[in-house]
């Protein structure tokens, strides 16, 4: 949550916040806060305002192994959503998915109620890499690796940033590969492969920034982030503000 929102919930006036910020009297994990827009989670960080520790709000962070057939949305009038996979006591209006996977895409999805975090993780400025396992309906060759490295250009002229393509197996009617991209354009991976003449028949996200899909999680299952992963979240929080 933004620091100013959190402090406002403690009935601290904006003027008092600004003064305390200037005087370095707002400490996040013992370091002076650098901005009132800083993203803070008092479940993960110690927040002290003028010598008083603020309890604030502990956010929820989940990893979900998204199955095919569900949409990445909070609600949908026709289709099941990723939220429907969670038990009612975890579902909340505040919870949302960080980034979007297509209905038929499976794999790693982070869910949180920490609003600014999604913005940070998805903002191009933060260069969060995403890796996918992909199956396509044709032959992949070293030329494709080169094209992805140089930056695929879509038919409409949009140029993608360089991507890393590793071919795992190649055949005339089916190839398996892994691809890492640093952007999040709409249907990006599918469009990139279409641009080189093959169609994606299966797509699974296995990595999102520092987070790796837990191989113990079956499709449709979720879990809370573990301590190590929460430390990674802290790293992203520290970049904010
Ligand atoms: N790229 C796609 O084309 N689809 C996804 O779901 C994710 C990335």
Automatic annotation (TrEMBL):
The keyword Iron does not apply. It comes from the Bacteria. Residues 61-194 form the Pseudouridine synthase RsuA/RluA-like domain. One of its GO terms (molecular function) is pseudouridine synthase activity. It is an enzyme of class 5 (isomerase). It holds the Pfam family PseudoU_synth_2. Its EC number is 5.4.99.-. Keywords: Isomerase, RNA-binding. Belongs to the pseudouridine synthase RsuA family. NCBIfam families: pseudouridine synthase. This is Pseudouridine synthase.
């Amino acid at each position: 949550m933004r620091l100013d929102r959190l402090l406002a919930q403690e009935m601290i006036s904006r003027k008092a916040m600004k003064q305390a910020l200037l005087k370095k009297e707002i400490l996040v994990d013992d370091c002076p806060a650098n901005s009132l827009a800083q993203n803070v989670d008092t479940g993960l960080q110690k927040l002290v305002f003028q010598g008083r520790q603020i309890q604030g709000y502990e956010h929820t962070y989940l990893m979900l192994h998204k199955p095919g057939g569900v949409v990445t949305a909070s609600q949908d009038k026709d289709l099941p959503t990723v939220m429907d996979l969670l038990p009612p006591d975890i579902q909340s209006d505040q919870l949302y998915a960080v980034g979007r996977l297509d209905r038929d895409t499976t794999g790693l999805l982070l869910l949180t109620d920490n609003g600014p975090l999604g913005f940070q993780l998805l903002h191009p400025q933060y260069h969060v890499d995403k890796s996918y396992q992909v199956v396509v309906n044709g032959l992949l060759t070293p030329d494709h690796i080169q094209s992805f490295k140089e930056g695929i250009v879509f038919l409409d002229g949009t140029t993608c940033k360089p991507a890393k393509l590793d071919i795992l197996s190649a055949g005339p009617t089916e190839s398996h590969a892994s691809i890492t991209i640093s952007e999040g354009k709409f249907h990006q991976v599918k469009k990139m492969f279409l641009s080189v003449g093959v169609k994606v028949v299966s797509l699974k996200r296995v990595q999102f920034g520092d987070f790796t899909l837990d191989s113990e999680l079956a499709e449709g299952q979720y879990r809370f982030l573990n301590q190590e992963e929460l430390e990674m979240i802290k790293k992203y929080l520290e970049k904010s503000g």
